[in-house]
Design brief:
The protein has eight helices and four strands, in the order E-E-H-H-H-H-H-H-H-H-E-E. By secondary structure, it is mainly alpha-helical.
């Protein structure tokens, strides 16, 4: 089967591809890694996952180094975005038993820099959100503001994640309780 993405047309009928894609639990991560790796394949001018595995490791390290430099040239890409693209590449090669010097490669990513300034919403911005919101959406906005939650935390919250603290007449909210952080 062949897939066309914004980055490249790649052939997905190989053990290298299956090792890569079937070892990812999350569908969203699978989709992102597939896209990010196809972007790397387009940079390498390759259309086959088997050809990507067949590269000599020293040459591959040089290509990844050049790719990092290419990604960093776009000033709109944050260091976090570059890291995400490199994570997809690392996962592919780790799952296909290709040993590369990742510590050395990581040195090319450079220092953490912010592309946009993160700042909390102002009271005026929150008011604008609340003015057009339904009662249900207002609950979400107030919960996110008071607990400092990101929007990705909301779908996983359950009633059992709330723990009342009688002494203060408050609730403790356990966020991401079901996710496991394995290193």
């Amino acid at each position: 089967m062949a897939t066309t993405t914004a980055a490249a047309t790649v052939v997905e009928e190989s053990d290298a591809y299956r090792n890569f894609i079937n070892s990812i639990d999350s569908e969203a991560t699978r989709r992102n890694y597939r896209y990010m790796f196809s972007y790397f394949m387009a940079f390498c001018k390759e259309t086959s996952y088997d050809d990507m595995v067949g590269m000599e490791p020293k040459r591959l390290e040089g290509v990844i180094r050049d790719y990092i430099i290419h990604l960093k040239q776009d000033k709109k890409r944050s260091q976090g975005t570059v890291s995400a693209y490199i994570s997809a590449i690392r996962h592919f090669y780790d799952m296909n038993d290709i040993d590369l010097h990742w510590k050395k490669i990581a040195k090319f990513k450079g220092r953490q820099r912010s592309v946009v300034e993160d700042k909390p919403y102002t009271r005026q911005q929150i008011k604008i959100l609340l003015d057009g919101a339904t009662l249900r959406d207002k609950c979400f906005v107030f919960l996110m503001c008071s607990a400092g939650l990101r929007r990705g935390a909301l779908p996983g919250l359950r009633l059992k994640d709330l723990q009342k603290i009688d002494k203060y007449q408050l609730y403790k909210i356990s966020v991401y309780k079901t996710s496991k952080n394995i290193t």
